[in-house]
Amino acid sequence: MSGPLRLVPDEGGAERTVQLRTLPLKRRRPAPPAEPEPAEQLGLSADPLDELAERLRDICADAVHPYEIAAFLESDGLSDEQAALLYGRPDAFTVAEELFEKVERRYPGPSSEFANPWRADPWRCVVRGLVFALPGLGYLLGANLFAATRMRFGLPSGMLALSVATLVSWSFNQALAHRAYRWLGRARRREAAICLSAGAPLGALLASAAAYVVGGPLGALSFAAGQSLYLGAATVLLVLGREKFLLLALAPASVGAGVVLATDVPQLVRTVVLLASLALAVGLAARELLFCIRRGEKEGVELKLPIRQEIPHLLFGLACGSLTLIAGLGVTIHQAVRTGAAHGANATPTGPAMIALTLSLGLAEWLLFRYRALAVAALRTSHTTGQFTRRTGGVLLGCLFIYLTTVAALDAAATVLWPGAPALGVPQLGALLLLGGSLWLALLLNAFGLSWSTALICLAAAGAESAGLLTGVDPTLLQLIGCGTAAVVLTAIAGPVLGRTTQHR
Asked: Would the pTM of this model clear 0.70, i.e. be above it?
């Protein structure tokens, strides 16, 4: 094999030895490229956990312990076998620990979509404040229906029956509204409409019957029955979120009251205006109920709500109504009881005060939403429970201060606009502010589920004031003691309870 070897026939000669030939460059087969790594070929990172960390970055950054991430992974269905197969880790807890180390801690404030979960439309609250206050103009139109020549407890005959009907309506409709809201909270608008369609007429019937039992002139009893019907219809529209419909229904009475203030109007015309507003309110409420019942789908799963949970709200409505009536009529009743005269005080400053209180209800509702929004924001930004408690306490005092300042300003404005109304003295203004503060704190605690506590506290204050009023005690002193004690107790409860993080979940 050491001799010459011809590789290509007839080429060269005998002297040509073995030569290794290669193809020219232009004919040379290109060398195959190096095989890419599977991870590069598929666009994957070397560690599959990096992709998971990027996908769960927000959750991992907000976590304060690996267990939070582990809980999320397990709720997402990641088992130990999947952790080993997909990520090469023995279990989900190891995956969570490494994710916790990979992602930098970040505790942001409220994001744009989470900044205010308790959003409240300010204009809607303004409308609700108006629909709370405008019904008071109806008393100007119906004043002649009460017999001013016959007095009972310093009030025109029939006014006592109207007051009793008002208390029954307030308490019953408070419980009815709470029950309907419970249905709405379970996304069952049809059941809420059925509840309202049965409860609103029943409440109007009970209030009218109570007025009839107390007795009075036929015109006054008719006015009480109409008021009861209106309050039932108003409850329906307010619960179903149709405040603008109610504002439309009040338009005739509002215009009529303005005309009455400017000139003398026959009682027949006044009655027609009142009936027009009543018919509009009842008609719009019936239309909304029929729409909800017919268009709503019947749920396949039957659900029953225990009615006993409405009892504290019924008592709370009764207490709020009693405290408000004492603030409005207490001076008149006190003069009649103390002197034994048929007539009470001629001029009292309670009219502007009641207007201020009713107009402020819209702001009170907005401040309830605002408190809850700021409390949730404090929950997300506070690092310790003590810091959260201090922040929510400051928010509570700030909201209460804004509300009471607004009530005082509204009372001053109403006093200027009310013809011949005397200004409130310091004790009377203090009693008004204590009443407003107590009611706002009670509504706030009610929103957090402390319905029995608030109902019993307010009911005790109302009972003590009523007993003192009938025995001849000065009504302003009674309100300072009764509402003041209630405000102190409610504040003492609100501070520790609302300072717990678990209350704001």
From this structure: yes
User: Which of left, alpha, beta for 13 (phi over 0: left; psi -120 to 50: alpha)?
Assistant: left
- The neighbour count for residue 108, using CB atoms within 10 Å, is 11
Which among 184, 491, 115 has a CA at the least distance from the CA of 176? 184
**DSSP character for 11?**
S
Structure-token match 């402020």, residue found:
360
The single residue listed with the structure tokens 């209350």 is: 503
Report the alpha-carbon distance of residue 374 to residue 384 in Å, rounded. 16
Q: Are 335 and 341 in contact (CB under 8 A)?
A: yes
β-pairing, 155-157 vs 147-152, is antiparallel
Which H or E element spans position 151?
strand 147-152
Give the count of beta carbons closer than 10 Å to the beta carbon of residue 235.
Answer: 24
Q: Name residue 22's amino acid.
A: T
- Residue 182 CA to residue 449 CA, distance in Å, equals 12
Whose tokens are 């807890």? That residue is 93
Give the Cα separation of 115 and 39 in Å (integer): 41
- Give the tens place of pLDDT for each residue, 153-172: 667 778 889 999 999 999 99
